[in-house]
Amino acid sequence: MNKSVVAASVLVLAGLVACAPPQKDNKGGETSSGVKVSEATSAADFGGMDALVEAAKKEGALNVIALPPDWANYGATIKAFSDKYGIKVNSAQPDAASQDEINAANQQKGKSTAPDVFDLGQSVALANTSMFAPYKVATWDDIAAAYKDANGTWVNDYGGYMSIGFDSAKVPPVTSVNDLLKPEYQGKVALNGDPTQAGAAFSGVLMVALSQGGSADDIAPGVEFFRKLKGAGNFLPVDPTPATIESGQTPVVIDWNYLNAAETKKLPTWQVVVPPDNAVAGFYYQAINKDAPHPAAARLWQEFLYSDAGQNLFAQGGVRPVRADNMMAAGTLDKMVAAQLPVIDGPVTVPSPDQTAKATKYLADNWAKAIG
């Protein structure tokens, strides 16, 4: 899956869906408090958490999209949610990009198979806020203002660092971005997705731009580097997946540290480097589709993700859950897992929404020409 970024502080931790059965349209249904289910902005609108759970169980299903099982531990999270509430989770297009999520919601609007919830990169999320339903979870006050929309339209869920993963059995050790231009890496360097559509790829180009003298205000040097990489024959136009990494098809991958780190458990020769002088961090955006076919289940999913249980499941996937600081202070963050999350000493770049918008436009105008 290819997902972009949000303003954040330095990180200390760092198949198509099986069609859901036709569902009754809940958009006109009301909660016990008289609020439409599709317009409920908190569990209180349902009459409390128990009533929300009851409404979600009545719907019986939840549609998610672009959530690979090995991305941020979503496989375990989906299972835990389904087991806890007895709600079937239909997972569509697990390897899709953020923009694909929005496209699917538009194409399937009004159908029982439309996505109920989104997990998006910054640039795609902020460009589509009119499609989101505001909702504030029970742990809302635990989430710093920088990580959420004040009205609950979106909330950051987890984050990490951009990194370079490589198979030490197939290529020389990568110590810097500039190493990737060397002949030893010919036809071996893959980027996770298209930076005009995918958050991971966007942040990868930004990381490269920083290494070439660029900045969050100037991503052009990153695009130029990939033009050189393509010219040298080193750029591999393949979307990396666990399968391509383990088969040796993509021996060098620019991707989030938690995705690259997950491969070290399966491939002992896989190593991960977060360039310390060009560190880029980012959070993903969680939101509810305002046209969700299962609006109560969508809201219950949010409650689960931002609960201690959900946040610890994210942490087990090697990402920094958005409530990490509060949970550490409260002693509710899994200490063993927290100790394994990366710490970066030094400056970390996190582009602002304005910087992301500017960079996104530059990429739209120049990326295809550079690597075409």
Automatic annotation (TrEMBL):
Its source organism is Mycolicibacterium moriokaense
Q: Where is the signal peptide?
A: 1-20
Q: What Gene Ontology molecular-function terms does this entry list?
A: thiamine binding; thiamine pyrophosphate binding
Q: Which domain of life is it from?
A: Bacteria
Q: What is this protein called?
A: Putative spermidine/putrescine transport system substrate-binding protein
PROSITE patterns in UniProt:
PROKAR_LIPOPROTEIN
A GO BP entry is: thiamine transport
Its GO CC terms are:
outer membrane-bounded periplasmic space
Q: Which UniProt keywords apply?
A: Signal
